[in-house]
Amino acid sequence: MSIRIAPSILSADFGRLESEIFEVASADFIHVDVMDNHFVPNLTIGLPVVERLAQISPVPLDVHLMIADPDRWAAKYAEVGAASCTYHFEAANNPLQVARDIRSTGSRAAVAIKPGTPAEAVFDLLTEVDMVLVMTVEPGFGGQEFMREMLPKLGALRKAAADAGTDIWLEVDGGISVETAPEAVAAGADTLVAGSSVFGHLDRAAAIANLRVAAR
Ligand SMILES: O=C(CO)[C@@H](O)[C@H](O)COP(=O)(O)O
Ligand SMILES: [Fe+2]
């Protein structure tokens, strides 16, 4: 199985975002954290910036919406060019409808769960989404410590998806590095978000290559 790497631009230099994105062009996706200071206690970027990033990025965008009311907003991010659009289960009034709205645009739909949310919460959605994102930190900030106690959720999701006759991607986000990537992959992750462990290195391409080797 080939592992997908998605550098999170939360740890990039926002003053030179375009060149930062080109420095991680060897990645499979660019992970874009959208935070609204309501669902999480942090504020980043919104729809107009994501739209422009989608136009200039050499690799597809994996947009992670940490926002209230994804029922209203999620499909709009897909419409402006997010190849994959992830909303939080905890924030959605109608999680099933949000997934369907995203998919109706042609983008991949993904649902995320915070550390306090059990994997079972999204079992009913597994045939309606393309990916589940298991948070391995509390959402809101980069550079936090990896919560390895979240890893059993991956096995549970993999089994539930197989039981439901569907094949989905499983992404982990938070504290992923060359040390923790092997654990996440062994537990069932196939898509790794990495913020500080990519943008914390001057040579971003080497950091991505090192993650790929570690994940193998
Ligand atoms: O969604 C989030 C944080 O809420 C992430 O995508 C972070 O940006 C990951 O950063 P690192 O833990 O890899 O530094
Ligand atoms: Fe994220």
TrEMBL record:
Keywords: Carbohydrate metabolism, Cobalt, Isomerase, Manganese, Metal-binding, Zinc
Cofactor note: Binds 1 divalent metal cation per subunit.
Record-listed E.C. numbers: 5.1.3.1
A single BP term in Gene Ontology: pentose catabolic process
Pfam families: Ribul_P_3_epim
EC primary class: isomerase
Cofactor dependence: Mn(2+); a divalent metal cation; Fe(2+); Zn(2+)
Transcription regulation keyword on record: no
Gene Ontology MF term list: D-ribulose-phosphate 3-epimerase activity; metal ion binding
Family annotation (Gene3D superfamilies): Aldolase class I (3.20.20.70)
Reaction(s) the record says it catalyses: D-ribulose 5-phosphate = D-xylulose 5-phosphate
GO CC list: cytoplasm
Record-stated family: Belongs to the ribulose-phosphate 3-epimerase family.
Function: Catalyzes the reversible epimerization of D-ribulose 5-phosphate to D-xylulose 5-phosphate.
Protein name (database record): Ribulose-phosphate 3-epimerase
Organism per entry: Demequina lutea
Designated gene of the protein: rpe
